[in-house]
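Hi everyone,

Forwarding the result from last night's run.
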Amino acid sequence: MRLRFFRPALNFFRAAFVFVAIGAIAPGALSAMAASREALGTSTGLPIPRYVSLKSDRVNLREGPSMDHRTAWIFQRAGLPVEVMAEFDAWRRIRDSEGTEGWVQKSLLSGRRTALVAPWKKQEVLPIRAKPQASADLAANVQAGVLANIKSCESGWCRIFGDGFDGYIEQTSLWGVYPDEKL
């Protein structure tokens, strides 16, 4: 009886020793392996997190992944970029630019990439350039929070367009695309 009690504990300590030994040999090896491994959605196999946009002008954000859960918020803007944080069957846990999180049905989401222009810079106006360079001619000015469609992103610049503008903006000025993400 005593042997059964101590055997699991002994196995636990052996495993702990192996992990400590690996950590001592290569201190950053485990974190590097974890960082290089991309999480994939259980339903789609697509990367998590990822950006998508809302397909409809009316999207219920629910507290949980079913119609039985209470509606916590209603989005009323088609094309709004959101970040998919998790998947569960036909449901996606999303987050908006203000940090609000909840669950929506996958049928209400689109793979079309959009972005908000610097929503954290309230009341500021940002330049849209004719070329992907800070010294390029001004193509337009847009107010922070403007919704833009993304044509492409490369080398720290994104080509965006919308109502009355088409040009390039620094990628770090957008919510809806990851730093250094290529589109």
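The chain has three domains: 2-36, 50-112, 116-175.

Cheers,
N.
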